[in-house]
From TrEMBL, chains A, B:
SUPFAM superfamilies hit by this protein: Six-hairpin glycosidases
Pfam families: GlcNAc_2-epim
Protein name: AGE family epimerase/isomerase
Annotated GO biological process: carbohydrate metabolic process
Cited Gene3D superfamilies: 1.50.10.10
Lineage: Bacteria, Pseudomonadati, Bacteroidota, Chitinophagia, Chitinophagales
Family to which the UniProt record says this protein belongs: Belongs to the N-acylglucosamine 2-epimerase family.
Length: 396, 396
């Protein structure tokens, strides 16, 4: 790495955009190209140890989708490298052949050779399949890709109010909470599908999603977004209702900033930036640095034993949100926070020795699991964030 | 605490039995009596903060069952205190009134006033309900308690091969693993119900359970017990198949020692003690002390982000197993391990300031969550272990 120039301007955006783009194309994408391709069965291995060796061969459909999306997106936005198109097609063919049940729902996982292992209990597999095929269709237009993307999207919309189906453990009616994850992802998903769904459909959809995130889940008295609320958006004093997931809230602020920019709505931009800064202040570990994984808004002990760990996606999503917030507003607090989160993230998560980045640190910022990929970490948050930060700063 | 006498004998059993019994009756049981009783709705609060204040009012049925069992058991074995019988009846009445669905399956949780919240997806609620009503019936014989215990036990036996029912996420047939938890608990459960089921039924049941634990889940080439195996007991190279849960394996060794003692089978005792010592050697954290929560037998990264944490139940169950192993065999390695685990446990888990013990420590043995009770920690492992260690050493 080059030494960072002294900050004469509020933020050395040219330096950061150079650094982030270089990391994307020289470190992250080659790591997944070199290590994740299953040449025998198709699809991707995502359980890669520190050096990139495969330690488990199960295929998690949502990570297959994320990697297809990633290589498609980078082909379109970074460089039309034939090998990136090949990677996207390699994953898409495996998904097309092995990924769905007879109703078109996406399995959570399959064996290496594509036998279904875990049922489609989790609608996020479907969300990332939609994103994958929509992105692939943009670089390799094909009616089959379009059809998979649209069918899956309509399936998500149909299932959205009861997506857990018979896997739901909640007794009906006693505590009907709304969860933040699906509105947040739909917010991003609708934009990804605009070339297929058409702008009218997207424009009809966007205000509803913005309302959910910024009115229903946002709690004005705290200035924070909760993970679960009563159907009317009010606070529910239970483990689920008290739960804060700072990374989730932070990630959603940049989705909202993207929508607000599209709608040319400076008030919405300001509100998203305020929530971003509130969440960082609240979620930052004042003792050991880094952003906590889970918190309880009343300070009660959270259920999640991993609450104090520092996760890669939380930190890289914060960098994207801060870059966008700074680019849109010039707010110097965003610049200062960007530098603080950047320094922590590059120091603790980046693996100088074997490439790619660590995913899981303990509270002190020490490596907890040395894996580069697993059941939940794949080729997605880091490359997307590196691209988003670089592109955002280049456009200033 | 009194200073520990110098170890002239291999183990100062009189000192330990005094210490453990005193801790049980002067610290642990009073804490739950004083803080967990819901005087308004009946039943027990189990979400208690460091000082015993209620931070959440949901009622987790398996923890209700465990607390009823505990006060019933202590009334029978420690002292016939009227207030302990009252505690047991207080919890049993709430369970009887609010705990089951129409098929007699036990809900996972209810609201404070007994409205069902989480469906009976988890058969361990049923296991602890059976134990609770069987134990209560021993001190307060009543056909209603017997009937609940027997009906629930028969329900468990009926459901045992497919207890997750429609909540199971596994695709049928692809990877049909057997899980260790239910055989292990049944091993203990059958003995608790002997006065109701009759010795013939128990004697018919016991060899099957011993076979499962000691032949199917035990892996001779490693000398360890795995959490999940192929139906024929062979190793399955997957996240689930590679998983070790040292606390679980250790706890099972004292259930087996109890059965082996009953059957007067010294070979089985020796095998259980060997597995206990193997598991401690393997699961002990050589860097920071304490026993790991989860490990991967091939050294791959476990899925469980909490893998390196130190949990109360793991350590107190190890103390019970070591006390029993020492009492049965006089093995000096058991004495040495008992002292080592005792010193770690009493130093790190016990809360000298507010009473009761902490449940969750990080790898370094620092308190991770200061709660005394929650969704998974209640009035069970610590009092049971304190009693078992004291009684075991007193009987030498």
């Amino acid at each position: 790495m080059q030494p960072k120039p002294a900050a004469i301007l509020p933020l050395a955006t040219a330096y950061y955009s150079y650094l982030y783009r270089k990391e994307l194309v020289s470190n992250i994408l080659p790591f997944w190209q070199n290590h994740s391709k299953d040449e025998v069965n198709g699809g991707f291995f995502t359980c890669l140890d520190r050096a990139g060796n495969v330690y488990d061969t199960d295929k998690f459909m949502w990570l297959q989708g994320r990697e297809v999306w990633c290589f498609s997106y980078m082909y379109r936005h970074v460089e039309q490298k034939e090998e990136w198109l090949d990677m996207a097609l390699h994953g898409a063919r495996f998904m097309q052949q092995h990924g769905r049940d007879e109703q078109g729902n996406w399995y959570f996982s399959t064996t290496a050779d594509g036998k279904p292992l875990v049922q489609p209990y989790n609608i996020f597999s479907d969300c990332f399949a939609t994103m994958a095929f929509a992105a692939l269709d943009k670089i390799n237009p094909n009616d089959e890709w379009k059809k998979i993307a649209v069918d899956t999207f309509e399936n998500i919309i149909r299932r959205r109010n009861n997506w857990k189906g018979h896997y739901s453990k909640a007794y009906p009616g006693t505590r009907p909470l709304k969860n933040f994850s699906l509105p947040m992802i739909l917010c991003n998903l609708s934009l990804e599908l605009e070339h297929i769904l058409g702008s009218d459909r997207v424009n009809e959809f966007v205000p509803e999603v913005i309302h959910e995130v910024m009115e229903v889940f946002y709690q004005p008295e705290h200035g924070l977004i909760l993970e679960n609320v009563n159907p009317d958006g009010s606070f529910n004093d239970s483990f689920e209702g008290r739960l804060l997931n700072p990374g989730h809230a932070i990630e959603s602020t940049w989705f909202i900033m993207d929508l607000a920019k599209r709608m040319n709505d400076p008030v919405l931009i300001d509100k998203a930036v305020t929530i971003l800064l509130n969440t960082l202040e609240y979620g930052w570990d004042k003792e050991y640095e880094g952003i906590f994984y889970f918190m309880d808004i009343k300070g009660a002990p959270p259920q999640q034993l991993e609450w104090d760990q520092k996760l890669w996606w939380v930190h890289v999503e914060a960098l994207v949100a801060l870059a966008k917030a700074y680019a849109l507003t010039g707010n110097e607090r965003c610049a200062a926070w960007f530098e603080k989160v950047h320094d922590y993230t590059w120091k603790h998560f980046r693996d100088d020795e074997y490439g790619e980045w660590f995913g899981y640190l303990n509270r002190r910022g020490e490596v907890l699991l040395s894996l580069k990929g697993g059941k939940w970490k794949g080729c997605f948050h880091i490359p997307r964030a590196l691209y988003q930060v670089a592109a955002t700063f280049e456009a200033i």
